[in-house]
Amino acid sequence: MNDKNYRDQYFEHGHWSLKIRQTLVMLLSWLVLFTPIIITTATYLAYRSHGRYGHYFWHYAEGFQELNFLAIFLTFALGMIAVFCLTMGYIQAQRAHGLVNKWPLFDINRNHRERAAAEEFMEQRFGKRQQREQAKHFTVKPEQNLSKDQLREVINGEERVAKE
Fold first, then answer.
1. C-alpha 76: how far from its chain's center?
2. ∠ CA 59-63-64 to the nearest 5 degrees?
3. How many CB atoms lie within 10 A of CB 44?
4. Which residues contact 45 (CB under 8 A, 6 or more apart)?
5. Overall average pLDDT of the 132-146 stretch
């Protein structure tokens, strides 16, 4: 039973060299992530406040132009996400209160027909469902192999199941 459990030596007692090494790698990774963010944010803040706040790490006009574009793009993207989330929240609230028709997400009758067609095909090809589910070992004969997209074609009604 112990083989199936996941063990992490980092959280076990001992293993100090592993803990120190992994902690240093983790801190270095966070430093590598945040350093460019801090530099870019401080420089952009200095650019927008004309040097009163932040610090100029670089003075490239193209960089400031790119940051202006990025700020506009991200503002637009966040606005679109907010509109989508608020709209979906409103629709779900209306559905929960019964003020809007609850349309089905799929055709239940079609789903039942497709499942019945697939089950009929599988029963003809491999035997009754109960036998298939209770068999411990089953060898598929070469003529029983499915061709590419054959089950999809049976489900969509493109291939008819031959009656025996």
1. 23
2. 80
3. 19
4. 53, 54
5. 84
Q: At what angle do helices 16-48 and 61-96 cross, to 10 degrees?
A: 110
Q: What angle do CA 123, 124, 126 make, to 5 degrees?
A: 60
In this structure, which amino acid lies at residue 38? I
What pLDDT does 160 receive? 57
The alpha-carbon radius of gyration of the chain (Å, integer) is 31
Q: Given CA atoms 71, 74, 80, 82 in this order, what sign does their dihedral have?
A: negative
Phi-psi region of 26 (alpha: psi -120 to 50; beta: other; left: phi over 0): alpha
User: pLDDT tens-digit profile of 18-38?
Assistant: 999 999 999 999 999 999 999
Q: Which of 20, 55, 161, 40 lies closest to 10 in space, CA to CA?
A: 20
Q: Token digits for 115?
A: 């499942």
Nearest-angstrom CA–CA distance, 126 and 43: 69
